[in-house]
Design brief:
It contains five helices and no strands. The protein has 108 residues and is mainly alpha-helical. The chain starts with 11 loop residues before the first helix and ends with a helix.
């Protein structure tokens, strides 16, 4: 999901690639949506507002550490961070959900 927060265009190709990876995960659509909204989005949305944003990929170890740190923060802080540019996460999810479901149908 981190690819959705790079300083690059999130086009149909990117969405299809990300959806394909997510379709192979063991998580339900509901769980994937929660991961996007509550873990990935709050940690990576600042990249979309940065003066010098990341455009070539996030280090997986850094990302795991940052998500862990975010999840250990008090609830009000986690809630607030998840609300920043929340519409972006909602729009991304709506663009992904059908692609994920379609990819799962093709693979099963």
């Amino acid at each position: 999901m981190s690819e959705l927060y790079l300083d690059t265009d999130v086009d149909a190709e990117v969405l299809t690639r990300v959806a394909g990876v997510l379709a192979q995960s063991p998580y339900s659509l509901d769980e994937l949506q929660k991961i996007l909204r509550n873990e990935v989005h709050p940690v990576l949305v600042p990249n979309l507002c940065s003066v010098a944003p990341v455009w070539d990929g996030f280090d997986p170890e850094w990302l795991a550490t940052e998500i862990g740190a975010h999840l250990r923060r008090p609830w009000p802080v986690r809630w607030w961070r998840a609300r920043v540019m929340r519409s972006h996460a909602i729009i991304l999810w709506h663009r992904l959900i059908r692609r994920i479901a379609s990819a799962r149908r093709r693979h099963h």
